[in-house]
Design goal:
Among the domains are: 75 residues, Rna Polymerase Sigma Factor, Chain: A (Orthogonal Bundle); 130 residues, Roll (Nuclear Transport Factor 2, Chain: A). The protein has 13 helices and 7 strands. With 318 residues, the protein is α+β, with helices and mostly antiparallel strands. Strand 4 and strand 5 form a beta hairpin. The chain starts with a helix and ends with a strand. Strands 1, 2, 3, 4, 5, 6 and 7 form a 7-stranded mixed β-sheet that branches.
């Protein structure tokens, strides 16, 4: 088999699964795409050295795993807003912004590869991605390959260059850490399994009309809103009301388009008025977590690159 045939017929078939693996490892689609691209280059360059002592799939995932582990040795842990600090005490316009590398960002769907049907969608929830980031990198890889991708301990050992005993030990420690770790984002994500489409519609209507009273009434009493890359987040109906009033100048006139993130979860793409009177431009992707037919947490990911990744337009008419 030549290098061109490998690149087209083999690597491309693994790409959706590789991307979802790297995203869970790294918490960022930018980093995941970089890792998958580098994996393809290294696989292509070293294809002539491949031996049949392991499967091609294991060999490719070994390259991707090593790349992820290398990236994570030099990286600080990504997180969600509510896990970084407490809610805002003073309600002001947000100013402090942290680098993109500080945050977990939502992902688009990874394609319709039949293999992906086996990969549990609940392990793409943002709170689960945040929980994964608390694990040491090698334990993280073991847990993803075992509990998400359902690989055998032998296959994982071959991929990560470990003994089967070491894999089982790392898996036990990782599961214990996952069970023990308590993140605020996980509490805010104990939500209804199926988002209420009527509540989403009422959120859109209230926001587009910028009816603050109607908008805040959709939240739980302890409901909150976070806005990466801004460090600040807001909790409670009273503070939410103050915050929406304070930011009316920016958000009034917004429009939403429906989209999905992280394995098909409904989300809303917010476009805001631009300097050009006739168009609206990308602002944030709202991921809305609900409980008992009320909003528990809105994560508004303010990142224009997400719109491109989700296949959304660069602007819309007013």
């Amino acid at each position: 088999m030549n290098e061109a045939a490998f690149d087209m017929k083999l690597f491309e078939s693994f790409k959706p699964g590789l991307t979802s693996f790297c995203y869970r490892m790294l918490g960022s689609m930018d980093d995941a795409d970089d890792a998958v691209q580098e994996t393809s280059i290294r696989a292509w360059q070293s294809w002539s050295t491949f031996r049949q002592d392991s499967s091609i799939k294991t060999w490719i995932y070994r390259i991707a795993s090593n790349l992820c582990l290398d990236k994570l040795r030099q990286a600080k842990r990504r997180s969600l807003s509510v896990d970084r600090s407490g809610p805002a005490v003073a309600i002001v316009e947000p100013v402090e912004m942290l680098p993109d590398s500080s945050w977990i960002w939502p992902s688009p769907d990874f394609g319709e590869n039949p293999e992906d049907i086996l990969v549990r969608k609940d392990t793409l929830q943002l709170c689960f991605i945040a929980l994964l980031q608390t694990l040491p990198p090698r334990q993280r890889a073991v847990l993803i390959l075992k509990d998400v991708f359902e690989w055998s301990s032998k296959q994982i050992a071959e991929t990560l260059g470990m003994s089967s005993a070491a894999v089982n030990s790392a898996l036990q420690r990782a599961r214990e850490t996952m069970d023990r770790t308590q993140l605020r984002s996980e509490e805010y994500s104990k939500m209804d399994v199926h988002p209420d489409p009527d509540l989403l519609s009422r959120y859109v209507e209230a926001f587009e009309q910028f009816d603050i009273h109607a908008l805040v009434s959709l939240f739980q009493e302890e409901g909150c809103m976070s806005m990466p890359p801004f460090a600040m987040w807001i909790s409670g109906q009273n503070d939410l009301s103050k915050f929406f009033a304070l930011t009316r100048w920016h958000c009034e006139g917004s429009k939403f388009l429906r989209t999905t993130v992280n394995g098909g979860y409904p989300a809303l793409a917010q476009y805001v008025p631009s300097k050009e009177a006739s168009v609206l431009v990308p602002w944030g992707i709202h991921v809305i977590e609900m409980r008992d037919r009320r909003i528990l947490h809105v994560q508004n990911f303010i990142n224009a690159k997400l719109f491109t990744r989700l296949g959304l337009p660069e602007q819309i008419d007013r």
